[in-house]
Amino acid sequence: MCGIFGIVGHGEASNLTYLGLHALQHRGQESAGIVASDGHTLRAHRQMGLVADIFTAPVIENLPGQAAIGHVRYSTAGGSGIKNAQPLFVNYAGGQFSIAHNGNLVNATELKAELEAEGALFQSDADTEVVMHLLARSKQPTFEARLVEALRRVEGAYSILLLTEDKLIAVRDPNGFRPLVLGKMKEGAYVLASETTALDLIEAEIVRELEPGELVVIENGVLRTSMPFKPAARLGRCIFEHVYFAKPDSVLFGSSVYEVRKRLGMQLAREQPAEADLVIAVPDSGVPAAIGFSQASGIPYDVGLIRSHYVGRTFIEPQQSIRHFGVKLKLSAVRSVLKGKRVVVVDDSIVRGTTSRKIVKMLKAAGAVEVHLRISSPPTQWPCYYGIDTPSRTELIAATHTTEEIAKYVTADSLGYLSLEGLGTAVEDPKRSTYCTACFSGQYLTDKLSQSAGGATKLSA
Amino acid sequence: MCGIFGIVGHGEASNLTYLGLHALQHRGQESAGIVASDGHTLRAHRQMGLVADIFTAPVIENLPGQAAIGHVRYSTAGGSGIKNAQPLFVNYAGGQFSIAHNGNLVNATELKAELEAEGALFQSDADTEVVMHLLARSKQPTFEARLVEALRRVEGAYSILLLTEDKLIAVRDPNGFRPLVLGKMKEGAYVLASETTALDLIEAEIVRELEPGELVVIENGVLRTSMPFKPAARLGRCIFEHVYFAKPDSVLFGSSVYEVRKRLGMQLAREQPAEADLVIAVPDSGVPAAIGFSQASGIPYDVGLIRSHYVGRTFIEPQQSIRHFGVKLKLSAVRSVLKGKRVVVVDDSIVRGTTSRKIVKMLKAAGAVEVHLRISSPPTQWPCYYGIDTPSRTELIAATHTTEEIAKYVTADSLGYLSLEGLGTAVEDPKRSTYCTACFSGQYLTDKLSQSAGGATKLSA
Amino acid sequence: MCGIFGIVGHGEASNLTYLGLHALQHRGQESAGIVASDGHTLRAHRQMGLVADIFTAPVIENLPGQAAIGHVRYSTAGGSGIKNAQPLFVNYAGGQFSIAHNGNLVNATELKAELEAEGALFQSDADTEVVMHLLARSKQPTFEARLVEALRRVEGAYSILLLTEDKLIAVRDPNGFRPLVLGKMKEGAYVLASETTALDLIEAEIVRELEPGELVVIENGVLRTSMPFKPAARLGRCIFEHVYFAKPDSVLFGSSVYEVRKRLGMQLAREQPAEADLVIAVPDSGVPAAIGFSQASGIPYDVGLIRSHYVGRTFIEPQQSIRHFGVKLKLSAVRSVLKGKRVVVVDDSIVRGTTSRKIVKMLKAAGAVEVHLRISSPPTQWPCYYGIDTPSRTELIAATHTTEEIAKYVTADSLGYLSLEGLGTAVEDPKRSTYCTACFSGQYLTDKLSQSAGGATKLSA
Amino acid sequence: MCGIFGIVGHGEASNLTYLGLHALQHRGQESAGIVASDGHTLRAHRQMGLVADIFTAPVIENLPGQAAIGHVRYSTAGGSGIKNAQPLFVNYAGGQFSIAHNGNLVNATELKAELEAEGALFQSDADTEVVMHLLARSKQPTFEARLVEALRRVEGAYSILLLTEDKLIAVRDPNGFRPLVLGKMKEGAYVLASETTALDLIEAEIVRELEPGELVVIENGVLRTSMPFKPAARLGRCIFEHVYFAKPDSVLFGSSVYEVRKRLGMQLAREQPAEADLVIAVPDSGVPAAIGFSQASGIPYDVGLIRSHYVGRTFIEPQQSIRHFGVKLKLSAVRSVLKGKRVVVVDDSIVRGTTSRKIVKMLKAAGAVEVHLRISSPPTQWPCYYGIDTPSRTELIAATHTTEEIAKYVTADSLGYLSLEGLGTAVEDPKRSTYCTACFSGQYLTDKLSQSAGGATKLSA
Lengths: 461, 461, 461, 461
Known about the structure:
4 copies of one chain form a homotetramer.
Chain A: E1 2-8, H1 13-23, E2 31-37, E3 42-48, H2 51-54, H3 57-61, E4 67-73, E5 88-92, E6 95-105, H4 108-117, H5 128-137, H6 143-153, E7 156-164, E8 167-172, E9 181-184, E10 190-193, H7 196-201, E11 205-209, E12 215-219, E13 222-226, E14 237-238, H8 239-245, E15 251-252, E16 255-256, H9 257-271, E17 278-281, H10 287-297, E18 305-307, H11 325-330, E19 331-333, H12 335-338, E20 342-347, H13 354-365, E21 370-375, H14 397-400, H15 403-409, E22 414-417, H16 420-426, E23 435-436, H17 438-441, H18 447-454
Parallel strand pairs in A: 14-23, 17-20, 20-21, 21-22
Antiparallel strand pairs in A: 1-4, 1-10, 2-3, 2-4, 5-6, 6-7, 7-8, 8-12, 9-10, 9-11, 12-13, 15-16, 18-19
Helix pairs in contact in A: 4-5, 5-6, 9-10, 9-16
Pathway (chains A, B, C, D): Purine metabolism; IMP biosynthesis via de novo pathway; N(1)-(5-phospho-D-ribosyl)glycinamide from 5-phospho-alpha-D-ribose 1-diphosphate: step 1/2
Function (chains A, B, C, D): Catalyzes the formation of phosphoribosylamine from phosphoribosylpyrophosphate (PRPP) and glutamine.
Keywords (chains A, B, C, D): 4Fe-4S, Glutamine amidotransferase, Glycosyltransferase, Iron, Iron-sulfur, Magnesium, Metal-binding, Purine biosynthesis, Transferase
């Protein structure tokens, strides 16, 4: 998954981009990059690691100019490694341009083969590079026209920022898979970001989300907008952004992420009630849903697991391995809360089931007499081809096992998932007609995938 | 403040010490160190920074042996810098020894002057070095006897671990200011740590806390205990460990930290009620008290502030400075929760008041119509001389201002502190006869300070 | 300037490449890179800095395979920065390939414009990328045929190594500007390197230099050779390699670099004799010529300047700046040798004159009564367009000043350059018909430049 | 071995100390440190590594003040590691002081035991710490008087710089083992350094060497001198400084190091002639003696071995190990010079013989038909206890083997050492009555060692 940020019209463009990327750090921790334009020349800095470690004062000073775009990356398409760090940056016939992409193109392989057959060189594994080649090869007279022509050929999820010497361009794909929000600073600079939390940090006013299929150009302080693509058959806003990915203080697709998550928990309490003494969360992502579950069920909310402030670092595993080592470095159980209690523990999703299993065992080892695992989304059964980094179907436990089997595997006394209908209710779209729920339903929205996967039968059926 | 950890009788002594220190990282982030003994030679590694960054596999491999002690440090006595990183490590007439100290000696300055007059050299600013000199100068025949003679001369707070070529020694001062807990691993190794959370991580069984004034020697797999010091007039267990310092999953001085904090919040709700729509915490330290406040008051608990997972890093401040910059990098307000609401916000303490002020302003900027600040401890009016790093009296806002003045400064609609009595109730010692509450009451327990500060009148009186 | 190295058919290909690059480190200190093939996949590591700092054991382990190419770079065409570090590495229609280039293409700008007009993207500033695009766009059926078609379009200096999944290819341009030598290891592996010193280090047998215009393919352990290009009008082996650039223990263009340099000094003594008490060198590059000068003139050779072993690091300049600061960190004068003496000091060339001036002043400050500067090559008056990093004409002191003016500027008592004829004699090609001497004569050999610069009049004429 | 530097009375004291240490880097590459005084407080920075890597601009800025001392270290007494990095720095009854020591104390072990018995703590392995303890324990009224009392107790080699808040003190032991030279800057600042090369770099005027047994105090811009120690029975200036250790452009013990080395080579040619075609040096240390040998013998000097500019870095050894790997990374043989020639190769000394063996083999592999190894000093048979880092006797090849045996081991056609008499002649002290030659003669000069080792019979006798 990735996060993108751009700003134009501000003397501290690269510094604000770095702060914006920090606010979006939860969207990608593998690498980060900024490309800035001083009106004549683009300069880039990309590196593996965290935003605050990469962008020191001397690095920022070497990125002068009034406009900049930035990117944080957790690998999706393409492997990891510095060559895939974005924003990508090239020279072409029209000068220089740079691109930062959140999403994933589903027809990149075919387009890449076609381009290579025409002599194109690919220097990264990123599907994003396909867009750059298509743009450079276009015979259209302007940069925007070239870009539109290029994007008309691609299929999939893209919220994209582009920077040339003199303009910043933002585009959101016609399905609107990934978020992209426009803001404005008091001094007049325009800002674009994956989530509102980045705008809040730098005190930009939130103007609005870009429309699905909208293309915005900001040049000489003027913003122009257009809808140059054929509208998608229907919207496909990523529901998993609400379930897990986005930061809870963000407002996304018109709804507060925090409130959606609380409603998921409330609905979950209604659908999957449990006899218990207390409700706890798997912190931090499970907290809002756990509070919602508590409020709807009347079972008191408490803190049964403490999240370490020092996770995310690598550790040397002792030879006499500690049980649940990985989870223990991240989470500690609060014995006094759990001892002798029947506990509802709320998490956002189960991927492989291994972490859930460790958590349930930790809770029991700390004295919980019953552990009822409640998941604030439906079973994750299908891989995402639109930008979320999920494993293949065979690794998704819910693709190959029933809920009962999973409950047994994770050693929970009971396991309950939210229904698809309940999920729709929480996002105030009961029929899920404006959201993509493919990871839960297998209903992919793009032509290519809806044909191949649409007819797939559930492996565990 | 500091954290200490020791283990003896385990083939992976330094590796487990490193994990133990990681679990105690919240007690000190400035530097960390481990000294290990292979039975003949002590080896040390000390460095500025975080445990997980310092102790890489090659570093751990260079610390072989069955016994090790470790230390994480946030400066108290003595300035910062690598020379003050512990464990300290010296050669003396009897061989080698190393020491890791949590606490602060109140008569270190006098003893240091006396020792220097006799020709002693001091290579750090740490009061701990005084103990080493006294020990080395003792004419007693054994290491323990030397240590006892040395410690009889010092006054103040100390939980200390010492490592020689062939034994591990642990001592807790007669007032019992700082915690120190004994554990045992399944394989038979003894473990000592500042807090139980470190024992939990490495799956050591918690045996018991050391008694105030107890000295434990572990040698050749055998543990001997003694009470070699004159008992203190009364116990002085640090109440601030419960209020703020310890990790909530630890059991400290016989009580669960988490439960104490919840009771602080419950008592606070009784003493300082507020008309409000919801209760939020300043995360993460204020969470248990906020939940307690919610349960006692019946006002719903919710999450109004999100803590970033990437705090603790340094940032380049933009020139057009963002309001409340420092706080914003750490905390984000959840607008949807706060908008139009009367909010009780619970924090553990107020030091200078500047952060509280920023938080209150952030909450109002995010839409809260009333902000009622509730503090789960009494006003912090006196510096700690027993190991907590508090600023001087003149910087403590509560030492020089009334509660009304503070409320006005932090721009809260109301401000309420917990009473000293309430604090005692929460730790189940209503008269506070076994706890040190000097930071709140000015009643210092050691001879030297009780004379000087005991008669002091409150500056703001 | 750059150095290249390649090996195929050896289980430690990347390790030997790293040693080979270390031996070629004098050819470029800005960045280094290795690309290795395991038969299926190419893996790359490129970084700013020195070979021995970049290629640690874990980095080498991540470059498995029986074949590898490497590159050390000091910027020529294209600015500095990681994006220009070689070997370059791309995917194209036929799979993956990598390229390492020593030299400079004189028609890169025109070709780049043409390629960009067709939609090509350029990700580096390197002229080398032009070759990659031409190759990828070729419609020829095989990799070699594509490469030949590509190289037929370029003009200039190139010794190139290419690596695909299954073969190593080496090419030398028809003029033979840059060296490239073939070697063979006892175990059968083929090796290619810019200079023989790299083969000596890894104990490869020196087979022969590649012919100008020769293309060698090594695949499945078999070496095929061909001469696919139109022969150049005449050879243009870079005479400056002998004068300064190559390592003295190398054998280059059939002659020992060390012996050539000694002969340069001998001829210089004949052409530009001096009345003096001793001959010293500007170390280390001036040493062979100084010994030759001494032997031919009978004036004793001695060491008047000591080179620091710790140069090449950056230094903080004191505010009260030390005279000749930069030179002093590199060179120390030996007072006892110089005091009261008339000194001949031999250097290989003068570029801007500033360093020579500092050296002459240092020698006089150390007691030399006369300083006679002798240069073992003719005046450097023309920039190199074939791969040596020389400044523009206006910065070349000999392009704008007479020898007398230069002598005065550098404060030498006399200044003597070697003649072009003498230079030819030393390389055993009195008419210079097989060497490029453009930096001294302005006679550029490639079509494009011979037209433009051939008619240029000397600025200082 | 170590190098020391001090300056007082200059606004850029720490910056000039860093430059001075860089000039002395050849005296120690393991660690470096600077302690500076701003008149009130001493500040230290010590680190493993090279001067230019350690002292970056921010580090220098944190060392303000008009006075500073610095140290470069290669371990002698005491093992390696950061705790032994100097200058050492302590607090004592009189305030703060720091010490930088070049040399080695022969009675440190006894004094250490005595001090430890009195309760002293030792934090390093350095014998230097003994001096600090003795000083701190002295009951004398002034710092100088304490220092004198302390130094009267020690025996051995010491050139020492001490820094207090307000003065810089320099002392040289009564035997004068190690050099120490006084200089003065134009602006009036006094400078002290191990060698004149450091004064030359910062353009300080060389005033004079300190006398053996002299103590100099510089305070408030005034220099006071005294001779407070009992004169030594005789001088013992280290002859190995001239043979190998010092930088050739330095003037040491009144003689130019370079000239002494040339005279060593001339005398060697007379004592150990050889029939040969050319004389080469093992660079760089053997160069002056090789030139002297050439001049005295009339055999032409040439360059047969090239020293890499990139040595001193660690390397990954290939599994199929290259013959003479270590030497090959440092030295390359020049085939064209050596081929078919009878070669005299001059080196300064032989320690274990392994490197000499590799060099002789390299020369033969490069075509030399005869290799005559000539050593510009007598056989190294005895360890140095005065500060040079030599291995134990059993590892010194000349302590256990005859010259013939060594010649055979190193595979040389002949081997000749300089005689002790010849060595004396070269330093203009034929009877060696002012030099220590213990490493060659076994005649140790200090009481303690002259008794124990004086009567020793040569192992190989």
